[in-house]
Write a structure and sequence with these properties.
The protein is an alpha/beta fold. It has helices at residues 20-25, 50-61, 82-94, 112-124, 156-160, 185-197, and strands at 7-12, 33-38, 66-72, 99-103, 129-133, 148-155, 176-181, 202-204, 217-219, 224-226. It has 6 helices and 10 strands; from the N terminus they run βαβαβαβαββαβαβββ. It is globular and about 45 Å long.
């Protein structure tokens, strides 16, 4: 993938019954949408939400390459560990979602082995594409674990000051993503330009706040959110 080819990864943490316009806009995005993140209830929820899944299927039919199911890694501290993480993955797969967005990944060198083991478990559960959200630049070994690593999550003011070490430029840009939120239209263009300079080819730049920012997790069809600790 050429470095000047930008794609978008969009966290769709709002129910289509509340904001159908945002869902419809995905079909006419200014840049190719590489994946969206589907989040029913801090994960797959107990019972499939038909409206949500119909919207996801429509988006995929309109050209979005992948729909990722949200799973919270909780920095490795989920009750039940990999067992509950794999249970969430199995629910997504049973509903036709074979890509995963694993959130809140620990980023130190000591975490490489356990995160690698967790991702292997997700692939065995049927996940064909894995996005790991570190939110920060992790130790180098992490960049080879998933298909995409989100190595920045924050607002535009913080993104402008982001410093990228030289070793990052040696990695495949299509495997790194930046998540910038609460940006104006002009700031979105600026953020995409900065992402190119920083060797990332997937960016997400919502031009208005997502529910509880991207750190919230949508609760079924009510659109209420839960704050991350």
């Amino acid at each position: 993938m050429a470095l000047d080819t930008m794609t978008a990864g969009i966290p769709m943490y709002v129910h289509p019954g509340i904001d159908g316009r945002s869902w419809a806009a995905l079909a006419t995005a200014d840049q190719p949408v590489r994946y969206i993140v589907l989040n029913q209830d801090s994960g797959p929820g107990d019972v499939e939400d038909g409206v949500l899944y119909d919207a996801a299927r429509a988006v995929k039919a309109n050209g979005v390459t992948r729909v990722c199911g949200y799973v919270d890694y909780a920095y490795g501290h989920r009750a039940g560990g990999d067992y509950t993480i794999n249970q969430d993955a199995a629910k997504w797969v049973s509903r036709g979602i074979d890509c995963v967005f694993l959130d809140r990944i620990p980023s130190t060198a000591a975490d490489v082995q356990p995160v690698s083991a967790s991702v292997l478990g997700l692939r065995k559960a049927g996940m064909k594409y894995v996005v790991l959200n570190y939110g920060v630049l992790p130790s180098p070994g992490h960049l080879d674990i998933g298909d995409v690593a989100v190595v920045f999550e924050g607002d535009m003011a913080t993104y402008r000051t982001l410093s990228v070490p030289a070793w990052v430029l040696e990695h495949e840009p299509e495997r790194m993503a930046h998540l910038v939120y609460e940006a104006s239209q002009e700031e979105a263009k600026e953020a995409i330009g900065l992402a190119r300079q920083r060797a990332a080819t997937t960016s997400s730049v919502p031009t208005r706040p997502l529910p509880a920012r991207t750190r919230g997790r949508v609760c079924r069809s009510t659109g209420a959110t839960r704050r991350r600790p």
